[in-house]
Amino acid sequence: MQSTQNPTGVTRRPLDVEDYIDIVRRHKGWIAGPAFLALVLAVVVAFLWPDTYISEATIQVVPPQVPERYVPSNVNSEMTQRINTMANSIESRANLTNLINTHNLYRSQLARKPLEDVIEDMRHDVHISPVGSLQAQGKGPISAFKVAYEYSNRYLAQKVAAELARDFIDANIRALASQSAATTDFLKDQWDAAKKRLDDLEGRMTQFRLKNAGRLPDQLQANLQTLRSLETQLAGVNDTINRTGQEKLLLEGQIRIYRDQLAAASQGTDAISTRVKDERLAQAERDVATMEMAISGLKQRYKETHPDVKQAEAQLQALKQRRDALLKQEPQKVPESAAQKPTPREVRGNQELEAAISRLQSQIQVQDMELEERTKTQKKIGEAIDAYTARIQASPLMEQNYTELSRDYNMAKALYEELNGKKSQSEAATALENRQYGERLELLESASLPETPAKPNRLMIIGAGIGIGLTLGLFTAGFREMKDGSLKNLKDARAYTNLPVLGTIPLLENDLVVRRKRRLTWLAWSTACIIGILAMTSSIYYYYSTKL
User: Fold this and answer.
1) Rg of the chain over CA atoms, in angstroms?
2) 329 near 277, Cβ under 8 Å?
3) pTM, full prediction
4) Backbone conformation region of residue 202, classed left if phi is above 0, alpha if psi is from -120 to 50, else beta
5) Looking at residue 5, what is its pLDDT?
6) DSSP for 123-174?
7) 267 and 398 part of one domain
8) What DSSP state is assigned to residue 435?
9) Same domain flag for 360 and 463
10) Among 139, 257, 268, 396, which is disulfide-ready with 339 (CB 3.0 to 4.6 Å)?
């Protein structure tokens, strides 16, 4: 051991085992005193410290019974997050106050502390372990967590722990049902709004279609096809009218010829020249009528400034001039000597001509009626062509409005269908939660009834007290030894004087003083031991009497 310095500056000699034994013997009272005092204090504290029992309940997380790919859940938060949220709710002031009042907890603390401090103490007594994997009996690893409560009364600790576990299960059911119902209500409101907008757009689409029937952009091809069909019908009607007009002109020319023949037969003169003139005039009339019909057909398809229309009108003027020239020509005179009286054969021929003229006139009347019907049909087809042409021309003007309306309708329809699917899924998830087929909490192990207190550990407290007392006594003995600079034995005399020791004389004290000192020491220790033993016995008796 290294040498130490004493207060006088003289270097102390190294101590050996015998020296330490002498130190303990000299200061045994200062070592035993603190050790005994610490023992008494430790026993008193250990047995006056009330027992604390911990009751635990295990809650397992049961997965949903219906696979989530069939019915997705409305709750997107993890179970750990939900448990933390529920723990905050369960440890709220209102809930803990209800537990304190229901089970009459912390009576002594409430007598000397305000309620808020007692609630805060109770929060420290409630322990909720995080969700983890636990090994259940007869099962594999399961996801579960523990709810524990510590209290001085083990029965009350069990009741409170059981109620806390039940509160967790009930709170989870309420939270899942509430969140699922809130999601369903929100989606239903969104679905109602989307349906209302879709119905409004459907009404607007219907009104737009009714108001612009036949002029919609998606009806353009149908209008074009109908227009081409009407133009084809108009061309057919024009051809029929032209053909009927030509036939009428032929019939009129034939009637004119028959009448000229009758006139020639009745006069008996210039028959040949008149017949030739009438034939040319009838042909000219037919040419004029044909050209007029052709011009009428061209005007149905083209404007008056079209080159084909102008060319046809020029040809018509030429034909009219030719007809007028034929009308101005005078028939050649035949000598009166050539006139003869009609024979019976000629009379019969005249009668046949008159009958033929009557038939031709009847046919002309039929042609006139047909021309009238064809003309009406031509007018109707022309009006229809104008209407469809106007539709086709007006189609680009409303295409933008129709496109915007169609786009809004398609977007509203897509949103409605999406919300309809989500609403159906949410309703199924809500029904699943109401039937408790989804993810839920289930009591795996009910709250335990603790048999032995978890706190305090009395043996550890007593052992720690004894250890602290011995340490304090040893430090006190060492401190007194270092303060004492006197020579204790022959080793000190030889070491500090460097002189040989020839002999020793024992210390002579008065027997009366020695006995008095011993009596006082014995009395002090006896009194201390009695007081200490009484204190320890009283604390132990108090503990077991209150426990029973």
Assistant:
1) 66
2) yes
3) 0.55
4) alpha
5) 46
6) HHHEEEPPPEEEE-TTS-EEEEEEEEEEESSHHHHHHHHHHHHHHHHHHHHH
7) yes
8) T
9) no
10) 268
Q: What is the pLDDT of residue 193?
A: 92
Let me know if residue 64 belongs to a domain. Answer: no
430 and 464 belong to one structural domain = no
Give which of 478, 459, 463, 465 is closest to 31, Cα–Cα. Answer: 478
User: 14 is written with which tokens?
Assistant: 């190294």
Q: Tell me the H-state helices in 52-127.
A: 79-90, 93-103, 107-112, 115-125
Name the DSSP class of 442: E
Verify that 281 and 323 share a domain, yes or no: yes
Q: Residues near 159 by Cβ (< 8 Å), separated by ≥ 6?
A: 103, 447
**Rounded to whole angstroms, how far apart are CA atoms 274 and 281?**
10
Locate 287 and state its tokens. 């040419």
Residues 512, 364, single domain; the answer is no
pLDDT digits 0-9 by tens, 193-251: 999 998 998 888 888 777 776 666 666 677 778 878 888 887 887 878 877 777 777 77
Q: What is the pLDDT of residues 251-309, one digit of tens each?
A: 777 777 777 767 766 655 444 455 555 667 667 777 777 777 777 767 766 677 777 77
Q: Which one-letter amino acid corresponds to residue 484?
A: D
CA 361 vs CA 194, 348, 358, 399: distances in Å: 75, 20, 5, 56
The string of pLDDT tens digits covering residues 80-111 is: 788 888 888 888 889 989 989 998 888 888 88
218 vs 222: CA distance, rounded Å: 8
Contacts of 319 (CB under 8 A, 6+ apart): 284, 287, 288, 291
Element (DSSP H or E) covering residue 233: helix 220-267
Query: Residue 387: is it exposed, middle or buried by C-beta count within 10 angstroms (0-12/13-18/19+)?
Result: middle
pLDDT digits (tens, 9 = 90+) for 108-142: 888 888 999 999 989 999 998 887 666 555 555 67
Are residues 513 and 375 located together in one domain of the fold?
no
Domain around 25: 1-49+456-548
With CA atoms as reference, report the closest residue to 29 among 468, 469, 477, 515. 477
